[in-house]
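Obj.: predict assembly geometry.
Materials: sequence records (below).
Method: joint structure prediction, all chains together.
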Amino acid sequence: GQNIDQPTEMTATEGAIVQINCTYQTSGFNGLFWYQQHAGEAPTFLSYNVLDGLEEKGRFSSFLSRSKGYSYLLLKELQMKDSASYLCAVRDGDYKLSFGAGTTVTVRA
Amino acid sequence: ETGVTQTPRHLVMGMTNKKSLKCEQHLGHNAMYWYKQSAKKPLELMFVYNFKEQTENNSVPSRFSPECPNSSHLFLHLHTLQPEDSALYLCASSQDEGGGEKLFFGSGTQLSVL
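Observations (raw structure tokens):
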């Protein structure tokens, strides 16, 4: 099976920056996704990386290094509404999508 | 609102009951999925349908039976479940299967099996 690792929990202060790391070991690679899931709600798409480098979307950025099997999601200028679970998901060589267990981010005032 | 609607939001059932979960998408997508989400565990793919045809069954026990009558609707029929089947069941859709297609998820059905 596929192996996708991300920290279980992170805590940060409002206005700060948090970086959520994701490492993966898959048979082949066809893209990496980040999703945000608020408690009791649907996961929603945040970003997609298939080539190495940084993708920036407003306060959120996602980075990928295929050679290292590594990605991170960077959340800047944290707001209380950013408290949520962040899911890393990788599509392997057979286009099968596997998810990590998610990182719960708590933003404190 | 993601365009994917699931009902019911919550369901409590006994091990001998039969119930069904419903999912509807209004996005014109061709692929639909059932996922199981247990606390502190990765999302677990159960079934995939593409153009109404089942393309993946991820070794799911037969007490879970999917049905896809058309590209907009997906059901999960449940019977003789076990307490360990208690989890959040998420439906998702995408334009097509594979590649860079992002998934649109419903809010899920929180299932408790007593």
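Conclusions so far: The interface with chain A takes residues 2, 4, 40-43, 45, 90, 97-100, 102-108 of chain B (CB under 8 Å).
To do: check interface contacts against the pulldown list.
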